[in-house]
Amino acid sequence: DIPPLNFYVTALSIAAMGKTDLAVRLPAIIYGMLGVGAAYILAKKLFSPQIGLWAGLFLAISPWHVQASRIAHEANLGMLLQVVGTIFFLRGLAQPRWLAGAALTWATSLYAYHGPRLTTPLLIITLGLIFKSKLAKLPKKWLAIAGLGFLVLVLPVVRLILFRPIAENRFAGI
Fold first, then answer.
1. Separation between Cα atoms, residue 31 and residue 38, nearest integer Å
2. DSSP helix/strand/coil, 106
3. CA atoms within 13 A on the CB side of 170
4. Which DSSP letter does residue 134 get?
5. What is the DSSP string of 49-94?
6. Are the CB atoms for 30 and 80 separated by under 8 Å?
7. Confidence of residue 168 (pLDDT cuts 50, 70, 90)
8. Taking residues 123-146, what's their average pLDDT?
């Protein structure tokens, strides 16, 4: 029950570069570097350019982030997609077409790592509550496109989580 996105990206890297250590590790290195840039952009957008630099620096030297990149772990991909989705969401508050990008990116995060299967819906709910007055003023068309697109893309994950035999065992004691 390992989310498949990282396997597909790594397979593309291996197809392009052959069966080498670099081909296997390169996607995780790229996720890690893009994650630092995304942390900078998000913190800059939310706070200031100086805070953005600090956020990028702290992520770049975070032992957890460095280790996940070094061992080609898929956790950095999930985090990257969540941060990029949040950047798209914030941009979507001014230009609603970006909400579709946020929905696509957040839905994709559910296929990247286990953590986003819990944290992405919580992130969406939290952002929805924080920005509900701004969201209410946006064209309903873009909200519907983003919401329905997200739901369609996450249905296979929801089905996997709720209706596999292991899930039935997990929920049997509740």
1. 10
2. helix
3. 8
4. H
5. HHHHHHHHHHHHH-HHHHHHHHTT-THHHHHHHHHHHHHHHHHHTT
6. no
7. low
8. 97
